[in-house]
């Protein structure tokens, strides 16, 4: 966290992503428009060099890094490199935005209660290992649910099991495909994630106040 004259504090976000990065873009726009005040993006880290989200970060002049798993012997070694990038950038809060890797205690311990994720279902339903991407929406439709949505939660060692910070609901329409349902949920993701981040930043600033 940095302070500028006039005591205004800026909270640094570290965004971890692996793909499209549409949630990251929604967060970026929300910072630009002032919907998420007191925040700046310290670093964007992608687990894939070809991620669209990484290209967006680069083209918008954001500090970014690509960290390929192939270069490291195990998950701990990988997370140590990610941690060093986050710490070098002075990151206060970590935002997972379509990050396709499970975090180890190497990251979970130093950033305990400071890592957020968004999941495209109403957790605790349709979460856990293997519940990613269209699998989630396929399962929701197959179960005959009439409602789905998305959840922002704190990240803990239990996959998709950390404390829930916010949810948004959408109807499941008759005739929905995983793709149509995913698109409806995604609209809400882009609305919910910036809202929750803004309120998390407020809480964070209050907890850091001296
Ligand atoms: C979103 O559906 C999010 O809920 C999940 O992964 C997807 C990422 O999409 N964790 P994008 O990369 O933000 O467009």
Mean pLDDT score: 96
Task: Report the uncertain regions.
Answer: none
Total beta strand runs:
8
What share of the residues lie within helices?
Answer: 25-40%
Distance between the termini: 13 Å
Number of helices: 6
Order of SSEs: EEHEHEHEHEHEEH
- Are any ligands bound, and if so which? 5-O-phosphono-beta-D-ribofuranosylamine
Strand fraction: 15-25%
Q: What kind of oligomer do you see?
A: single chain
Structure classification: alpha/beta
Largest sheet: 8 strands, mixed
Q: What can you tell me about this protein's structure?
A:
This protein is an alpha/beta fold and 210 residues long. It is built from six helices and eight strands; from the N terminus they run ββαβαβαβαβαββα. Strands 1, 2, 3, 4, 5, 6, 7 and 8 form an eight-stranded mixed β-sheet that branches. β1 and β2 (8-17) form a beta hairpin. α1 packs across α6 (178-208) and α5 (134-142) crosses α6 (178-208). It is globular, with a radius of gyration of 17 Å.
Quick description:
The chain has helices at residues 22-33, 52-59, 75-88, 105-108, 134-142, 178-208, and strands at residues 2-4, 8-17, 39-46, 64-66, 93-96, 115-119, 147-154, 164-171.
SSE layout and pairing:
Layout: E1 2-4, E2 8-17, H1 22-33, E3 39-46, H2 52-59, E4 64-66, H3 75-88, E5 93-96, H4 105-108, E6 115-119, H5 134-142, E7 147-154, E8 164-171, H6 178-208
Parallel strand pairs: 2-3, 2-5, 3-4, 5-6
Antiparallel strand pairs: 1-2, 6-7, 7-8
Helix pairs in contact: 1-6, 5-6
The protein binds 5-O-phosphono-beta-D-ribofuranosylamine.
């Amino acid at each position: 966290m940095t302070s500028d004259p006039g005591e205004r504090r800026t909270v640094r976000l570290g965004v971890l992503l692996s793909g499209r990065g549409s949630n990251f873009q929604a967060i970026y726009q929300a910072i630009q428009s002032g919907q998420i005040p007191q925040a700046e993006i310290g670093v964007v880290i992608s687990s894939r060099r070809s991620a669209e989200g990484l290209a967006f970060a680069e083209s918008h002049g954001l500090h970014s890094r690509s960290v390929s798993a192939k270069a490291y012997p195990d998950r701990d070694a990988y997370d140590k490199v990610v941690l060093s990038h986050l710490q070098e950038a002075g990151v206060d809060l970590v935002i997972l935005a379509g990050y396709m890797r499970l975090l180890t205690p190497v990251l979970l311990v130093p950033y305990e209660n400071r890592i957020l994720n968004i999941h495209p279902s109403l957790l605790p339903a349709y979460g856990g290992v293997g519940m990613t991407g269209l699998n989630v929406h396929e399962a929701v439709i197959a179960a005959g649910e009439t409602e789905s949505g998305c959840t922002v939660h704190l990240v803990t060692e239990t996959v998709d099991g950390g404390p829930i910070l916010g949810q948004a609901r959408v109807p499941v329409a008759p005739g929905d495909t995983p793709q149509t349902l995913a698109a409806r949920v995604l609209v809400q993701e882009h609305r919910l994630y910036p809202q929750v981040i803004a309120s998390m930043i407020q809480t964070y600033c209050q907890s850091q106040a001296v």
